[in-house]
């Protein structure tokens, strides 16, 4: 097996998240009268397409309303608007340590680098722009959850990246993320290697039970697993 493409998640994997996404999620729920959402419940759905994550939370806290399209869309629109504002203005928006160095090292070894995310393109654009990643030579492709028919844990984002980057076999792809749904996405796509990082929403103890191939505490250790 020779890895030709590494697909990285964004928030919590390659971009620092100090609980900001969780805070915005819970504020959006509070704005429609669901004020008691627990931090752990939001962490559990990190990585999902955000509309699906909202439906899961609503089903738990306001049963029956998860099928109310207008109610879900109200929360989703509020979340999107808040996240765009956050990423356009937040001074703490930075890459996680070693991210850019690892991107370059992979490319220098003829391994392509892609990003995928549970965010919409509207949220992702200011992240990439402010980090200078929108025109960065060390990222080959970016795909967002609203650009495929289904987000994680479905494999469609990875499959579309493979098509765009001319990768024929999933065995030649590595998936890197910080949540259970990243692991499930990698498995469903048939990725040759699935790597979890502890820099995001899930702890090592939480990740272990979903059985990724590797769990690392920093992207610094990724090249030795891939190259």
From TrEMBL:
The keyword Hydrolase appears for this protein: yes
SUPFAM superfamilies referenced in this protein's UniProt entry, alphabetically: HAD-like
Keyword Hydrolase tagged: yes
GO cellular component, one term: cytosol
Transmembrane feature ranges: none
GO molecular function: phosphoglycolate phosphatase activity
Keywords attached to this entry: Hydrolase
One GO BP: DNA repair
PANTHER family named in the record: PHOSPHOGLYCOLATE PHOSPHATASE (PTHR43434), PHOSPHONOACETALDEHYDE HYDROLASE (PTHR43434:SF19)
Name of the featured protein: HAD-IA family hydrolase
Organism: Ginsengibacter hankyongi
């Amino acid at each position: 097996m020779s890895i030709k493409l590494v697909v990285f998640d964004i928030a919590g994997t390659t971009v620092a998240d100090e609980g900001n996404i969780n805070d915005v999620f819970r504020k959006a729920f509070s704005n429609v009268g669901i004020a008691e959402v627990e931090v752990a419940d939001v962490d559990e759905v990190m990585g999902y397409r955000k509309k699906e994550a909202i439906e899961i939370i609503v089903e738990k806290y306001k049963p029956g309303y998860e099928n109310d399209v207008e109610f879900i869309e109200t929360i989703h629109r509020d979340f999107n608007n808040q996240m765009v504002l956050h990423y356009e203005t937040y001074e703490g928006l930075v890459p996680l340590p070693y991210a850019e160095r690892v991107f370059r090292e992979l490319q220098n070894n003829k391994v392509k680098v892609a990003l995928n995310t549970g965010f919409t393109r509207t949220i992702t654009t200011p992240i990439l722009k402010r980090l200078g990643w929108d025109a960065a030579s060390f990222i080959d492709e970016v795909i967002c959850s609203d650009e495929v028919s289904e987000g994680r844990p479905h494999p469609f984002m990875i499959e579309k990246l493979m098509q765009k980057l001319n990768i024929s076999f999933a065995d030649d792809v590595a998936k890197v993320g910080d949540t259970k749904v990243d692991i499930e996405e990698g498995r469903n796509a048939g990725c040759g290697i699935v790597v979890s990082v502890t820099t995001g929403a899930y702890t090592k103890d939480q990740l272990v039970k979903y059985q990724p191939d590797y769990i690392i505490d920093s992207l610094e250790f990724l090249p030795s697993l891939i190259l």
